[in-house]
Amino acid sequence: MRRTDREVKDVDEMIGIMKRCDVCRLALNDGGYPYILPLNFGLKAQDGKVTLYFHGAEKGKKYELLAKDSRASFEMDCSHRLVSSEENGQCTMEYESVIGKGKVEIVSEEEKMEALTILTDHYHETHFEFDTRAVPKTAVMKLVVEEMTGKRRVKGEH
C-alpha cells in the first residue's frame, strides 16, 4: 500500500468498516478481463476469520465463471464525504474501504438458512424474519477471506 499512513491494520477495525458498507463488489476471472458484480452481502466474523455471504438466482454468468475459477477479489467502501476548500481550490474525499481475496463456493442446503439470515440481518438493525418460500430457488455463495487490507482517509490528512 502506497499510503501506509492511511492503512487500517487491525482486523476488528476492518470488520467494523465492512459492517458499515452496504455493497460488496466481487471481481471474478473472465478470461483476461475482470467481471465485477455489485452484490448485497452479509458477513460472519469469528476468531479473526471473516466469511462473506452473497445470494442470487440459481443461474447466470457468475456461476459459469466460478465453475471455471473460484478465486475472487472483493472491494467495499463507505463513509464517503466530499471535503472542499473554496479558499485554496482543493477538494478530496473521505472514505473507508476494505479489499481482499478468497475462494467462492456455493453453500450447502444445510448452511443456506444461516447464511441468508446473516445476509438479511446485515441490512436490518434487529433480526429480520424473511419469507422462506424463495429459499429453494435462491443460490447462496460464500467467500472465506484469505487476505484483506483496509484503508481510511479522514479530513486533515494530505
TrEMBL record:
Give the residues annotated as coiled coil: none
Q: Which SUPFAM superfamilies match?
A: FMN-binding split barrel
**Would you tell me the protein name for this molecule?**
Pyridoxamine 5'-phosphate oxidase family protein
